[in-house]
Each structure stands twice: as structure tokens, then as C-alpha cells.
Design a protein that fits this description.
By secondary structure, the protein is α/β, with parallel strands linked by helices. The chain contains 4 helices and 7 strands. It is 22% helix and 30% strand. It starts with a strand and ends in a 10-residue tail after the last strand.
Length: 162
Amino acid sequence: MRVILHDLNTRYDELIAASCDRVIPADGKYAPCQGCFGCWTKHPAECFMRDSLQQVCRLIGQADEMVIITKNLYGAYSTPVKNVLDRSIGTSTPLSTYRARQMHHTLRYGKHGLWKVIVYGDITADEKETFRLTAERNAINDGFERTEVVFIESPEELEGLL
């Protein structure tokens, strides 16, 4: 299953919907993570908050390919996208294991394919490097085997990338 998480406005809805199996709009119409860890322990992979992100752990956890479209924010994900990723901590468990000779949380859903990040907006060389490193670490933490980061100036350039 191909999942796209994005912070774009509704102008791009058709393009995105035609390019994936499921869409997670980072539209800000949800609560930020409360840090209760209930999605880890009390009700695995399900947030207690009854909003559009209640099942986001399961959705991301079942993705073979995760595509994130985000505006650059000083070499990091935009705030709405980061809020969604924060709410997806339940894709792993509180237990730890070694993966790639490093300590990580065990995966609730197993291995996945591609973690692809498409970054738009002004971005410096240092911010690009920060983004690449962040995406690689996120991919490892969530059990994705490959990482790809693409930088574009504006969302109008998305057509051939999805």
C-alpha cells in the first residue's frame, strides 16, 4: 500500500489521490500528540483522541511505501507534518532491539519498502543535509529499507515525482 502524507492545500487533492492508495492530509484538523504513550501500551497502535489521526499508526504501519510531501522548515518537516509523525509513534512497541547494529524500538508491523520525502520551498545546502539525515533516521526507526529525499522549489513540480 502506498500512503502519502502531505501539507499541501486542496488544489493538489486530485493529483495526490490518483498517486496512492491512502492519503493523510496534514491539515491541522487534529490534536497534537499528548505524550501519554497509550498507543504503545494501553491500546496498541490506536490513539485515544477521537479525531482524523486516531488510526494513523495502523495506516503508516501497513504502508509498503510512505511518501511525505512537506514544506521546508529550517531543514525539518513542516509543523503539521511533524504533528502527524508524532502521533504515529505506535507503529513500534516500547520494547527495544538491535537493527542495523543500533538500538531501536521493535516494529509492530514489520519491514517496509520506501520512505520518500519530497521537500518544497527555499532550502540551503546545510538544510538539505539535515533533511537527508533526518529522513534516513526516520526510515530506520519505522522499519523502511530505503530512503529517498527529493528537493523541489514549489509543489507545481510534483506531477512527475508521484
